[in-house]
């Protein structure tokens, strides 16, 4: 089968489309004929590898890609929920070294990593949803259901998580502000953001406005700065960001803010595949349409990864694998 392979860490230049052996499913796994897959921040991090001050071995995941959508091509003897021919999608990132491999014509996945794909959802739309969609759900509802009249801010709003979170938030009568770079603001307005802020021109923690909920994908400020921008009983929920040390500081100081004030600071740990049924329902109801950047072909992977790494993408970067 064709797969996007890398034998060492590095820039997108290390990626190559090559022929490799098709994997064989274990007892509780299905073999998926992959039709679409999307790039996540984890793929970008794994591509580059750890930044350690000593040498490390070759990458464990030769084939990246954890968000996949496709058709079941074979099932292990213990598989109960799926049959050959079923259309499925999911996030394989919870399953260690067997957990990636989606940027290929076929991949094996435990059946519990998968949900049935609604018939009207394209494979490209399905591949865009698992990680970003569930981070959006788990971040947005970190302190329970949204309430009418709430003011919400989404930071890093033009990427995968933000473009899904806005659609889910707007199912309630809430006012939503989105923060991202200038090139994405028009697209964000078209998705329903009431206000947009260009983070290169305005610091949303210093403009005097307050929010009941802040959902962050970048974590570029301190916990005190976030807390200052919250209304009483407000919640700041971050799903991540590029700097681990900053995230840990926000978690630690945020714990103290939670103990000493009526505000909450939460670090969201992704619970893979828990909310796919909810995303299916929203899609079926016509309330959610993933924003797709692409789709790209696997042969265009280097350019697609460069585009993602530069932060130029809008919504989710998706590959079609035919
Ligand atoms: N919690 C977990 O268990 C877990 C699991 C998986 C992933 N994650 C994390 O979840 C996040 C995924 O978010 P995503 O898929 O939405 O990422 P994304 O698609 O890369 O979107 C992030 C957006 O933020 C913008 N941005 C960059 N710098 C910014 C700044 N200083 N202020 C505001 N916006 C800025 C980017 O645009 P420009 O570059 O054009 O500015 C981009 O549009 C990542 O941080 C990832 O590490 C967490």
Give the biggest sheet: 7 strands, mixed
Shape field = globular
How many domains make up the 3D coordinates? Answer: 2
| Name of the CATH class of the largest domain | Alpha Beta
Distance between the termini: 11 Å
User: How much of the residues is beta strand, in percent?
Assistant: 25-35%
Characterization of the model:
By secondary structure, the chain is of the alpha/beta class. The protein folds into 2 domains: 2-129 and 290-320, Medium-chain alcohol dehydrogenases, catalytic domain (Quinone Oxidoreductase, Chain A, domain 1, Alpha-Beta Complex), CATH 3.90.180.10; 132-267, NAD(P)-binding Rossmann-like Domain (Rossmann fold), CATH 3.40.50. 26% of the residues lie in helices and 26% in strands. It contains 9 helices and 15 strands. It has helices at residues 41-48, 123-128, 130-140, 160-169, 185-191, 223-228, 244-260, 276-284, 301-309; strands spanning 2-5, 16-19, 29-38, 67-75, 87-91, 106-110, 114-116, 151-155, 175-180, 195-198, 211-216, 230-238, 264-267, 292-297, 316-320. Strands 3, 4, 5, 6, 7, 14 and 15 form a 7-stranded mixed beta sheet that branches. Helix 3 (130-140) crosses helix 4. The longest helix has 17 residues, at 244-260. It is globular and about 60 Å long. The termini are close together. The model has no long low-confidence stretch (mean pLDDT 96). Bound molecules: NADP nicotinamide-adenine-dinucleotide phosphate. NADP nicotinamide-adenine-dinucleotide phosphate is lined by residues 41-42, 131-132, 135, 155-156, 158-162, 179-181, 184, 199, 217-218, 220, 239-241, 268-270, 311.
């Amino acid at each position: 089968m064709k797969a996007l392979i890398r034998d060492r860490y590095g820039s997108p230049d290390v990626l190559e489309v090559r022929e490799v052996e098709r994997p064989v499913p274990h007892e509780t796994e299905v073999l998926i004929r992959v039709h679409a897959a999307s790039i996540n921040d984890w793929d970008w991090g794994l591509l580059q590898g750890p930044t350690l001050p000593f040498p490390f071995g070759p990458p464990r995941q030769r084939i990246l890609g954890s968000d996949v959508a496709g058709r079941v091509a074979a099932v292990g003897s213990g598989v109960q929920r799926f049959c050959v021919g079923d259309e499925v999608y999911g996030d394989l990132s919870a399953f260690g070294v067997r957990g990636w491999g989606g940027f290929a014509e076929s991949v094996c996945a435990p059946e519990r990593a998968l949900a049935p794909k609604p018939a009207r959802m394209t494979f490209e739309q399905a591949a865009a949803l698992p990680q970003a969609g569930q981070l959006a759900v788990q971040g947005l509802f970190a302190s329970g259901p949204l309430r009418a009249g709430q003011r919400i801010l989404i930071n890093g709003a033009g990427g995968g998580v933000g473009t899904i979170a806005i659609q889910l938030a707007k199912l309630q009568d809430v006012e939503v502000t989105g923060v991202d770079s200038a090139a994405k603001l028009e697209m964000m307005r078209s998705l329903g953001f009431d206000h947009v802020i260009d983070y290169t021109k305005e610091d949303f923690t210093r403009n005097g406005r307050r929010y009941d909920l802040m959902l962050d994908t970048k974590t570029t400020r301190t916990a005190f700065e976030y807390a200052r921008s919250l209304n009483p009983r407000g919640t700041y929920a971050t799903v991540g960001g590029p700097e681990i040390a900053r995230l840990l500081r926000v978690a630690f100081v945020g714990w103290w803010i939670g103990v000493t004030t009526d505000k909450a600071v939460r670090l969201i740990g992704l619970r893979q595949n828990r909310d796919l049924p909810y995303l299916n329902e929203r899609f079926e109801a016509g309330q959610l349409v993933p924003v797709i950047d692409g789709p790209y072909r696997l042969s265009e992977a280097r350019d697609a990864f460069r585009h993602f790494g530069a932060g130029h993408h809008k919504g989710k970067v998706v590959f079609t694998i035919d």
